[in-house]
């Protein structure tokens, strides 16, 4: 995952009295918290530290699970720490042998941590009793695919907590006002961009230029739709010449045209995520790529009549091998329990609490985002943005995949792909040169014996 310093405007969480009431009906694990395989119970007198990534989802959502843990173990000193630069903040602590007991991982190299056994196998957690659903195991409460996600070589080291989708955002009232129809193919997108530029003073696109991965995602999706699933498999498996595929070069050509033809909001390549997203919400650009956290991250900046709407990324042409409805989505995020934490059993128990229905419902209420627990959003009033994401997920059906695995398995390759994308959009390299550079980075990863390899 890209390390991003996202800003969040926090919303109010559920009232403290509600937390106390929910805690009273929760069933503690006690001696069943042998999730780490030690056969020991949680030591309720031990301190507990949860490290939260204070980004798009903020930290307000953590109040409920931490309060529930305190109710269960009143003698424990429960501490919340948070930040946005996990490499700088937590890598030294892993080296020193004193990492937090539970981490919301956005920025650490999960594949390397797993390969080095720095994080615990949390698979046994799936067979523990669900925190607030009597008669059910944790796995029984999760949406399809969640139990299988976050595995390396078959071992579950990461627990997703959000169920999201990525795509392109626009304001429906703006689109309706101008009579613009969202295009399904890239040539149609460029034609619409030309019309927007010619007839209005609104920029067709903007993006989070300081974090180029935001634009890499849709560009890869456009290529995927053109070439079909085999392209992703070849890229993820570091196959020779995978990045030289004509579909990737064509997608790079198409997206570079946004810059070459002046279809980007001026200066987009130098904008942070917050700047670009603010300008978009203010109506200065029509389209912006982002994940499901956009609404929560914008907070009060977004006008009430913005009508935030997510749609799939355009394909390349009518000859595409994958349907327009194809999206990246499903279980996301990664909660990990460090193996050398001072209280890993406590971290595992807090994770079990987080996966409770009441905590996941609270997450949806606070962050406006869907979670991995069945029925957690039932009864929660959803915004137009959230409804549009649900519609995208439903339309995708089986045409949805979590992400390009190379972005998860090989952090150095991910970082290099960001550099290459920045160079492409700054027009420092041609699309063909971009393709050659990415292939060079992939080959270096494939040949490096110090990097553990995975296969799709």
Number of helices: 17
Order of helices and strands: HEHEHEHEEEEHHEHHHHEHEEEHHHEHHH
Q: How is the biggest beta sheet arranged? A: 4 strands, mixed
* Name given to the CATH homologous superfamily of the largest domain: Periplasmic binding protein-like II
Which overall shape is indicated by the principal axes computed on the Cα atoms?
globular
Q: In a few lines, what is going on in this structure?
A:
This protein has 456 residues and is an alpha/beta fold. 40% of the residues lie in helices and 11% in strands. The radius of gyration is 22 Å and the shape is globular.
Q: What is the topology?
A:
Layout: H1 16-25, E1 48-53, H2 63-72, E2 78-83, H3 86-96, E3 102-104, H4 110-115, E4 151-152, E5 155-156, E6 162-165, E7 167-171, H5 172-178, H6 186-199, E8 203-205, H7 213-227, H8 229-236, H9 246-260, H10 273-281, E9 285-290, H11 294-298, E10 308-311, E11 327-332, E12 335-336, H12 344-354, H13 357-367, H14 384-396, E13 400-401, H15 406-409, H16 411-425, H17 431-447
Parallel strand pairs: 1-2, 1-3, 8-9, 11-13
Antiparallel strand pairs: 3-12, 4-5, 6-11, 7-9, 7-10
Helix pairs in contact: 1-2, 2-12, 7-8, 7-9, 9-17, 16-17
